[in-house]
Design a protein that fits this description.
The structure holds 2 protein chains of 2 kinds. By secondary structure, chain A is an alpha+beta fold. In chain A, about 50% of the residues lie in helices and about 15% in strands. In chain B, helix 3 runs parallel beside helix 8 and helix 10 packs antiparallel against helix 13. Classes of the chains: A alpha+beta, B mainly alpha.
Chain lengths: ~425, ~300
């Protein structure tokens, strides 16, 4: 009896171990992994519609939040169990690593079929986010490796009611005008600005926009290449923008540790701040939080009138096709269908996401359209020829936090960031 | 020593040994797969430069050398130590005091036991958001939004109103206090259970010998509670050094480096800067530190028991 029990335990363990393997994929099915909780229902409707039209079942798996999704994708890649369609929510270098490891299909031929019909139907900047150009620093074969399903950009949003209360008649176009508005708002007892600066990527967008405006793209890229120092006067101007805003009392208390969701509540639900910096998705968020919120959308006020204010934007969400999938062609056909006008109108109607298909833009309300107007002049780290070392980026963003809380001066932060940059350059030069 | 008497007896013994071995196979297998192998794999990965995907480059001990001079890492270790110190003192003193109170015949003690155990069963995310709202330093139309600042204003201490989570002087202490508030219930339950196992006759005998409340506490309660206290101390240290979710839900990606603790640095190296190899080296060093602390405490506990 004792031996029988022991053997039974062993067998159960073996059975458990055998059951840990991946179950076989259903035939005629495309598996899609995503993280967008707010879009799951709309995607399910589209999946059913696609199955009715083509007989191909689309199985959607939701893994949220996005951090957990990123970890899931990397773990799945390491275990070689990626689905047919997924997304890489990471830096371009990591996307390149996925491509070089053979996990991402080159979609160039599909995009360029029928005289580039698919590519032409979508916003160019959104497609560019997924494009690797000739001679790219990542060493990836030139081509298009992802399908954008919506677009967006980061802009300055202003509460019309609060601005009216303070006697401000139009949103600021220049940084000087913005500072003047901030003073007026402060005198009226209104907090001028809130944003989710506890999420460092928002600081990154804000600072990058001003860096491009102050010194132009080339100088920013030359800094990333190590040819320009962060102690350069132009970079000091970028850092000083945050100090100026801090000194003028523009920032809501606690802004550096505030998550974007709380900042959205402050701006929309409680109307605690007159300005915010946020992305195109916020139109949908604010509509849910406060349907009657009276607000407008403009680009960040220009600091250097000699150069344009380039907004961080392009594809908001992109999906890639697993190159190792036996159903690669079916997956590509599904994504082509998903970006067609009809499906894009459906997604916009249900989710207020900005369509990636140009033809689906008709009927988009003003506040949302404002995010797409800057699309052709937008920029995105994934279209840059070179990206900053992640450790330098971390020092840069944490340094800006230190300026915002008044702990460090722009000069001190510039020196700190350059020290990290020098160290990374030295490290890269070591064998 | 096994004495062989005849073949049949030997076979029976061997069969018994084999059967016993089969019983522990599942546990040993699980232990090896989920504990031993991952640790060695972690150490193996710490010897590489790797972005998490694609080819790895062997760098030997370079990640560990870099870690030795990483000021932010050692700062994070110090900050975790600070959170742990607050938890060890404030949290456990509170837990012990409340356990002592509930061990006596006081009214509604069952209610108190229930209330004190609510914070530990709440999710860290929920606790984080709750305290985030309480410590909010924003204002709206001249009024404080956060409960703490609002309360301070109303009781006549507006000068104490503060940007609690975004000031380097207070942010880590706030995190430590919230962590202690969330964690004291565990200590409370364990210490209360320990107090209830102390034989009441010991107290009666001591009283007959003329001991007062203070002497009863120091010479009966504390010595009898040493094993439980050591367990609580060990669990507090291990739990506090690894605080992570609470920090994320209180201050998001952190206030500069002032709220970083080792687990956040490991997470940041792995997912923020894509240095998987370096993150593994950090994890190895951190893991070994915690094991060392555990063994030191165990040895200390054994010595106290002998005394």
């Amino acid at each position: 009896m004792k031996l029988f029990l022991a053997l039974l335990c062993g067998l159960m363990l073996a059975a458990t171990a055998c059951g840990c393997g991946q179950s076989g994929k259903e035939a005629n099915t495309i598996e899609v992994w995503h993280w967008m909780t707010d879009r799951q229902d709309a995607f399910e409707v589209l999946a059913r519609k696609y199955e009715a039209q083509t007989g191909i079942k689309v199985k959607l798996a939701l893994f949220a939040p996005s951090d957990a999704y990123t970890q899931k994708i990397i773990a799945a890649a390491q275990a070689n169990i990626l689905p047919d369609v997924y997304s890489i929510l990471d830096k371009k270098a990591i996307v390149a690593a996925f491509i070089k490891a053979g996990f991402v299909a080159d979609l160039t031929d599909a995009f360029q079929m029928d005289n580039n019909a698919w590519e032409k139907s979508l916003f160019t900047k959104a497609v560019d986010v997924n494009r690797f150009v000739e001679g790219n620093v990542d060493g990836v074969k030139p081509g298009i490796y992802g399908v954008p399903i919506d677009v967006g950009s980061q802009q300055l949003l202003y509460n019309k009611t609060l601005l009216r209360q303070a006697g401000i008649t139009r949103p600021p176009a220049t940084f000087e005008e913005w500072l003047a508005d901030i003073d007026v708002l402060r005198r009226a007892g209104i907090t001028p600005f809130v944003s989710g600066f506890g999420e460092l990527w928002l600081i990154d967008c804000f600072a990058s926009n001003y860096a491009f405006n102050i010194m132009g793209e080339q100088k920013v890229f030359d800094t990333f290449r190590g040819k320009v120092s962060y102690t350069d006067p132009d970079w000091l101007r970028v850092f000083t923008i945050f100090k100026t805003l801090h000194d003028r009392g523009a920032f809501m208390n606690g802004i550096v540790t505030k998550g974007n969701k709380l900042a959205e509540q402050d701006f929309a639900v409680f109307e605690r701040a007159a300005f915010t910096f946020n992305g195109a998705w916020s139109v949908h968020v604010y509509r849910q939080m406060r349907p009657d919120l009276d607000y407008g959308v403009v680009p960040l006020p220009v600091f250097n009138p000699a150069l344009p204010m380039v907004s961080w934007g392009g594809a908001e969400t992109s999906l890639v096709v697993n190159n190792l999938s036996p159903d690669k062609d079916k997956a590509i056909a599904f994504l082509k269908w998903l970006t067609a006008r009809e499906q894009q109108v459906f997604l916009f109607t249900h989710l207020y996401s900005l369509p990636v298909n140009r033809e689906a833009m008709a009927g988009v309300p003003e506040n949302l359209a404002a995010f797409s107007r800057v699309m052709e002049t937008s920029t995105h780290p994934k279209v840059w020829p070179v990206n900053e070392d992640p450790l330098v980026s971390e020092a840069f963003l944490k340094g800006i936090q230190a300026i915002i809380i008044g702990e460090k001066t722009p000069q001190a932060v510039a020196r700190d960031v350059q020290l990290v940059k020098d160290r990374q350059i030295e490290k890269a030069s070591q064998p | 020593m096994f004495v062989k008497t005849n073949g049949r007896y030997s076979n029976t013994k061997s069969l018994d040994a084999f059967t016993n071995f089969l019983f522990i196979v599942p546990a040993v297998t699980i232990f090896i797969i989920f504990y031993v192998y991952p640790f060695f794999e972690l150490f193996n990965l710490s010897l590489y430069q790797w972005s998490g995907i694609g080819p790895k480059t062997f760098v030997g001990m370079r990640n560990f050398q870099e870690l030795a001079t990483d000021k932010v890492w050692w700062l994070s270790m110090g900050q975790a130590g600070y959170v742990t110190l607050i938890a060890l003192t404030f949290q456990n003193a509170l837990a012990f005091a409340l356990a002592l109170a509930c061990d006596r015949e006081i009214r509604m003690k069952r209610f108190y036991r229930l209330v004190f155990f609510i914070p530990p069963v709440l999710s860290e995310v929920v606790v984080g958001f709750l305290w985030n709202w309480m410590l909010n330093s924003g204002t709206h139309q001249g009024h404080q939004v956060g409960l703490v600042n609002n309360f301070l204003t109303h009781i006549g201490f507006p000068q104490l109103v503060h940007d609690w989570l975004s000031d380097p002087k207070t942010s880590l202490t706030c995190i430590a206090v919230v962590h202690s508030w969330k964690g004291f219930g565990w200590g409370f339950i364990m210490l209360l259970a320990g107090l209830q196992t102390i034989d009441r006759q010991l107290y009666e005998a001591a009283r007959i010998d003329g001991a007062g409340s203070w002497r009863l506490f120091w010479h009966v309660t504390v010595p009898m509670m040493v094993p439980v206290i050591m367990v609580v101390v060990m669990l507090t240290i291990l739990g506090s050094m690894q605080v992570f979710v609470l920090i994320f839900s209180l201050v998001n990606q952190g206030l500069v480096y002032h709220t970083d603790v080792p687990v956040i640095r490991i997470f940041s190296s792995m997912w923020g800067t894509n240095q998987f190899g370096y993150a593994c080296a950090q994890a190895v060093v951190f893991g070994i530190s915690l094991v060392a602390v555990s063994f030191t405490l165990k040895a200390f506990s054994n010595r106290i028991k002998q005394v």
